Amino acid sequence: MTRRGYIIGAISLLVAFVVFVIPFLFVAINAMKTAQDASSLDFSLPERWVFWENLVTTVQTRDYALLLAYWNSIVITVCAIALLVVFGAMVGFVIQRRPSRTSRVVYAFILAGLMIPPAVVPTIWVLQGINLFKTLNGMILIQVAYGLGFTVLLYRAFISTIPRELDEAAIIDGAKPWQIFFRVVLPLLKPVTLTIIVVQSITIFNDFTHPLYYLPGRENITVQLTLYNFQSQFVSQMNLLFMNILLITIPPLLVFIFFNRQIVAGMTSGAVKG
Q1: Considering its fold, how many domains does the chain have in total?
Q2: Which of 174, 182, 238, 268 is surrounded by the most beta carbons within 10 Å?
């Protein structure tokens, strides 16, 4: 590697450290302080370490609301990811393998869904009309609707790299269209499927605005909305707030750390042929 490459690499690592590592350390340090020490919002080490006390208090706040929030977020994430993988792969397969005027129109709507911002009030009206407002089922459908466009794009790009000869061989053997998809194509989509699972699960699990709009109610709280437990107009428990942030940040962070290579591989797998 040239000297210029070393310099660019060092600068990149420094920027990444400042942008990602320092804020995480700031949150972690303040999560271990007392309420009085954390209120100063500085980067100093705590005079008295109260990590376990803050952890227990955070979990027990409002009748273990954090545990309920974890359960709701996991249910929404798992169900939405399952639907996204199945329907996203199906739509991507049809658009790539069955080009027609209808498929092009569908693809245009998918691209429009990525570019046009969602309308909150009409969406609430629709959910109220089908009795899914303030329900986990409605929130799952919302996450599927918002994530389907990105999912279809990745699947379509990846399927374009799979030789059509495999489909033709399956047809000659008497396979039906659904058998071609589930038995021939879908098993080959493992790399991009893993990418979609990781990326979309982090996105859905960390979603704040959509549950705030479409899932009101104390029994429907999600992990991001638990941040309100320790903030009010007059009093803010900063040490418990930072502990709450730490608890809801660690799971997605671990997923990203362990699966970052798979994310890159799946995102670039369909880049050669589109």
Answers
A1: 1
A2: 238
